[in-house]
């Protein structure tokens, strides 16, 4: 009798697995039907058989190559890891999320390819790579003036506002960071890599989800409670803005012999009345009042309590207009200290499979207000 029960259970499990496999196939078929399908041979030719010389980047679950299609169009070809279940999820999420979404500040998904174990996404090609490559790190590719940097911040804000407040259902990107903001030939920004994005219907206040994203950009309430809202993207945007202004990475770094996150350093300088000390030394000339406003807006975006952060439409107004910011309502940022940073080793990429412990700073809560001058 016992053997019979186990046998029945095994049979049901096998049926369940078959149903699950077919469900995944159906989901993939439905997703790929939403966008143009490229042949594997076409993409092989375009990238010279995915030659290393055409490699232009690497993400968490795949490698990106530059390619030239038969019609002469330049494209970015992202090959997702065949062995990674997360790569498969990213493939489906990306297609399902933005296959029909168009905006000047979002990278356009041109199509996809399914060939055996291979899952490939094809995007428009952007000449100036990412903010990460152009601005951060020791090997900067260009020298960006303030006009260009402010346009990058404002364009990224517009892209996020579109995702958060104009689409139905709304989209939370979940991985806003320097390497995911790409720059076209005129250095206009476009938000890319929607592999971690979540659809956000109007009738819910938050999504409970496993942690995914990049250390240094993660909102504390998301890491600690697993509750995702649009304000997590707002937090990441605030950190990104500080990076663009300072030319420094968001991650743990040495500031006068003290290891700090960029947002920590920004708040310290703000309290000392020395926020302009954070500005990138390469910015030889810049409008001080405007640069200060951008950094203060970034601090409004990174406040510890998510409900006190502005909406992205409010951020656009704060950045684009000469408004007076009510700094009496500005509270300290929330940030997460990774214990491993004490040894000088800070892990950058996180996924749902990552087990990481954090310490967080706790701050009082007040309301953010913007008052026109």
UniProtKB/TrEMBL annotation:
The keyword Iron-sulfur does not apply. It is found in: Membrane. Its main location: membrane. Residues 50-325 form the Protein kinase domain. Its EC number is 2.7.11.1. Keywords: ATP-binding, Glycoprotein, Kinase, Membrane, Nucleotide-binding, Phosphoprotein, Receptor, Repeat, Serine/threonine-protein kinase, Signal, Transferase, Transmembrane, Transmembrane helix. Pfam families: PK_Tyr_Ser-Thr. One of its GO terms (molecular function) is ATP binding. ATP binds at residue 78. Residues 351-362 have a biased composition (Low complexity). It is a single-pass membrane protein. GO terms for cellular component: membrane. Residues 330-373 are annotated as: Disordered. This is Serine/threonine protein kinase. The keyword Repeat applies. Residues 363-373 have a biased composition (Polar residues). InterPro entries: CR_Ser/Thr_kinase, Kinase-like_dom_sf, Prot_kinase_dom, Protein_kinase_ATP_BS, Ser-Thr/Tyr_kinase_cat_dom, Ser/Thr_kinase_AS. Belongs to the protein kinase superfamily.
């Amino acid at each position: 009798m016992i053997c019979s029960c186990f046998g029945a259970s095994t049979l049901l499990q096998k049926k369940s697995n078959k149903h699950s496999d077919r469900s995944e196939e159906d989901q993939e078929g439905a997703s790929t039907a939403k966008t143009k399908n490229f042949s594997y041979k076409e993409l092989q030719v375009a990238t010279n058989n995915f030659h290393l010389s055409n490699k232009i980047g690497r993400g968490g679950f795949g490698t990106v190559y530059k390619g030239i299609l038969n019609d002469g169009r330049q494209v970015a070809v992202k090959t997702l890891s065949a062995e990674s279940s997360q790569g498969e999820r990213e493939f489906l999420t990306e297609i399902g999320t933005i296959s029909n979404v168009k905006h000047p500040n979002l990278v356009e998904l041109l199509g996809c390819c399914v060939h055996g174990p291979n899952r490939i996404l094809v995007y428009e090609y952007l000449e100036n790579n990412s903010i990460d490559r152009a601005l951060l790190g020791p090997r900067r590719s260009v020298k960006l003036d303030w006009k260009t940097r402010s346009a990058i911040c404002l364009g990224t804000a517009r892209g996020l506002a579109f995702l958060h407040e104009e689409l139905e259902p709304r989209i939370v990107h979940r991985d806003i960071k320097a390497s995911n903001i790409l720059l076209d030939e005129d250095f206009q920004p476009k938000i890319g890599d929607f592999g971690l994005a979540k659809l956000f219907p109007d009738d819910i206040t938050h999504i409970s989800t496993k942690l995914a994203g990049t250390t240094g950009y993660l909102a504390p309430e998301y890491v600690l409670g697993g509750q995702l809202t649009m304000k997590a993207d707002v937090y990441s945007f605030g950190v990104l803005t500080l990076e663009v202004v300072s030319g420094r990475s968001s991650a743990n770094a040495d500031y006068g012999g003290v290891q700090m996150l960029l947002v920590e350093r920004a708040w310290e300088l703000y309290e000392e009345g020395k926020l302009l000390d954070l500005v990138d030394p390469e910015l030889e000339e810049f409008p001080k009042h405007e640069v200060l406003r951008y950094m203060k807006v970034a601090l409004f975006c990174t406040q510890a309590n998510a409900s006190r952060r502005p909406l992205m439409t409010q951020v656009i107004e704060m950045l684009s207009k000469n408004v007076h910011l009510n700094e009496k309502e500005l509270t300290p940022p929330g940030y997460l200290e990774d214990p491993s940073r004490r040894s000088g080793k800070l892990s950058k990429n996180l996924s749902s499979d990552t087990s990481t412990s954090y310490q967080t700073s706790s701050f009082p809560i007040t309301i953010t207000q913007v008052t026109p001058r």
